[in-house]
Structure formats: structure tokens, C-alpha cells
Amino acid sequence: MALQRQVNRQANQLVASGRGWQSVIVLLNDASLRWYTVSGEQANGRLWATPQGDQACLVAQQLPTLAEGQVYQVWLSHAGEQVSGGTFEARNGNAWIIIGTQEPIANYATVFVTIEPDGGSAMPTGMRVLNGTLTSGTTASSADRLALARLLHN
Questions:
Q1: What are phi and psi of 119, to 5 degrees?
Q2: For the chain, which residues make up each domain, given as ranges?
Q3: 3-state helix/strand/coil string of the chain
Q4: Rounded to 5 degrees, what are φ and ψ at 40?
Q5: Contacts of residue 99, Cβ cutoff 8 Å, sequence gap at least 6
Q6: How far is CA 81 from CA 58, 75, 76, 115, in A?
Q7: Hey, CA dihedral for 20, 25, 26, 27, is it positive or negative?
Q8: pLDDT in tens, 22-46
Q9: Cut 0.70: pTM above it
Q10: How crowded is residue 115: how many other Cβ atoms within 10 Å of its Cβ?
């Protein structure tokens, strides 16, 4: 039974990874792609998004090691409301996640990442490890797009 659960989990991860790559390709080919800096005490990264799009890619590096039963959870906020962008795990302190939103990214003011119990939380409860504002971003150059593609490939 445990082996079957492990096989099912890996199959689900492969499907999600395929969808994630499709979303990244769409972002990389959008002329309005921008990146926003996210940082923390130890970790850093970038949120890649198109202002009017409803998907973004968060790339994080140097994330702290989690205890057993914990995950990272990304949040978007506006008007005092936090919306979950999903949970993720890191490998060697590095991770990326595709975030799907109900509204255009331009409607959100901030993005942050917390440490939450496995499965995530309905509201942020854990320590923040990354913070960023979405009020101004940098237009992605060709070199930026190439660097993102290489970073995600590793």
C-alpha cells in the first residue's frame, strides 16, 4: 500500500510538473512579463508575472530547511485579504511554483511565503520567509527570460 501511494504521488507530481512547464512557456513568451523581487532574512527570489495575467511563477532560493510535516505556502494579498497561491517544497533550499489566481496579478499589492503545516493553512499562521511588493516590477529582458528558463531547468 505504501509503495502504491508513493507511485501515485510521483505520478501526480509529473502531471503537475508538465502543467507547470506549459505555464512557464506561456509566461516566457509574453511581451509584458515582469519580475518582482522577494526577499527574507535568509531566502531570496523573484515572482515572474504579467500584470493582467492570472498566473505567476515564484522562484525561491536559499530557503531554510523545513521540519518534518511542514511545507512552504505562498500568499498574495490586497485590501487586507490574503489568498493562498498554493504549497510547495524545496530541494536544497531551491524551489519554484506556478501560482494561479482568481484576479489579475496587478490587483494584488504583496506576495509572501510562510512555513505551514503539511497540506497548507486556510490563513497564514507560520513564520514568513519571503516578502515582496507587487507595486513596481522590472520588465523582463531577453537575458532575464533565458536566465529564468535555465534556473527552472536545473
A1: 95, -15
A2: 2-153
A3: CHHHHHHHHHHHHHHHHHHHHHHHHHHHCCCCCEEEEEECCCCEEEEEECCCCCEEEEEEECCCCCCCCEEEEEEEEECCEEEEEEEECCECCEEEEEEECCCCHHHCCEEEEEEEECCCCCCCCCCEEEEEECCCCEECCHHHHHHHHHHHHC
A4: -150, -170
A5: 47, 55, 56, 57, 58, 74, 76, 85, 86
A6: 20, 10, 8, 18
A7: positive
A8: 666 666 767 778 889 999 999 999 9
A9: yes
A10: 19
Residue corresponding to grid cell 505555464: 23
Grid-cell match 515582496, residue found = 132
**Which tens digit of pLDDT belongs to each residue from 130-142?**
999 998 889 888 8
